Each structure stands twice: as C-alpha cells, then as structure tokens.
Task: structure prediction
Amino acid sequence: MAKAAADRIVARIVANGQRVAICLSGGSSPKQLFELLATDAYRAKIPWDRVHWFIGDERFVPVDNPLNNMSMARKAFLDQCAPSANVHPIPIDSADPGEAARRYEAELKAFYGLDKLTPERPLFDVVLLGIGPDGHTASLFPGYPAVEETKRWVIEVPKANVEPFVPRISLTLPTLASCREMLFEASGAGKRAILTRVFDDEDLPANRAHSEGETIWLLDKAALPENFRA
Ligand code: 6PG
Result:
C-alpha cells in the first residue's frame, strides 16, 4: 500500500511541471509511505525544489511532542529531502487553535493567490487522508460542526472525538476537496469495521470527503471489509 501511494504521488508530481502542492495526512498510516519517499528509489524522482508540503490537520501540541503530525513527517522524510521553505506546518506556536487555524488559512490563501477556491485551479495536487475508528478524516469528526463548515478553509476543533484527546486544527471539506487527487490509506484488520460502514455509504466525514478530481482508496488485504465490491 505504501508503494502504491508513493507511486501515485510521484506520478502526480511529475505530471505537473509547475509548482506542486501536496497535503499530507497525520496519524500512523502514512509513516511507511513517508519513509519510502526518502529512499534513493523515490528521492531521485522528486523535484524537491518545486514541491510544497502542507498538512491536512494537526494536534495542538508542541513540535517536540510525538503526537505532532508534521513533526512525524519531518523526521520520516521532509527534513532530509525538502527545502525548509517548502514545508508548511500548521503554526501551533499560536495562542490557541483558533488563531492557528486563521493563520494557516491566511498562509494557504497567500500560497493560492486568491481568497476563493475555484474548481478550475485546485489548491493541491494530492490530498492524503486516513480514516479513524469513528469515520473521521483529518480532524473532522462525525456530528461535529466542523464537518458542516463551507466558508472557512481551516477550522479549530477544541475537543477530539477519539484518541489523542487533544485540541485539533483541520482543513475543512471544501479545502480538502480542492485537489487533483484525494488518496485515502487504510491498513490492518482494525479498519475493517469502519470501512464496512464507509462502503455501506453511511454518512461519515470520510464518505463526505471527495476530490473535485479523483478520489482513491488504498487498502491492504487485512483492511478489506466483506462488503467491498471492486
Ligand atoms: C490525525 C489524523 C487522522 C488519522 C486517522 C487515522 O491527526 O489523527 O489526521 O485523521 O488519519 O485517525 O489514524 P491512523 O492512521 O493512525 O489509523
């Protein structure tokens, strides 16, 4: 699954001869993918100087905290491979998650060059996502107002619905949708129950998340639910 994800990301990067923007996911699922991107096999294929790396959600914890999503990505590949100016973390050195969300929205708008997303020009080439046991994706939890947000690009989520129970900052569904490709990774038997609900088309944040381009689910065999129909 990590290799399939790495190949898709490299294909999207190579397909875009201009400035590229990749939105990374948090959690544990992408770690193997990140480490793969730092290997010689992949490192040589990526034009690091024109690729920018963002994060779809963050836990409001210091950068030296192992729960910090962008720090995990930095350790796994970004610090070795990417120019530091091309790495765009959510600013958790803010007074509170609300301020961090507003600052990151301003940074995304400055990068995009407009205050309004347009379908013709996606913000991201690839948005990488995972799925939690309750069907959340990024830090958009089922039944939370953040899932319904359509104006703001980034939003604070004061209280998480699952571990780790720390305040979060998350890109909203319209911002995540502004991509050429949305790539979900889910591995292990532990994901089977929630994926069964996803493929039953239950109204879950992970089911609401979709790209204006392609939306792809990468699963390993252990995660494949009974009701999965290719
Ligand atoms: C986070 C993530 C979250 C994650 C899922 C799956 O900050 O927690 O962004 O959305 O993708 O919870 O987590 P695992 O990959 O660890 O199963």
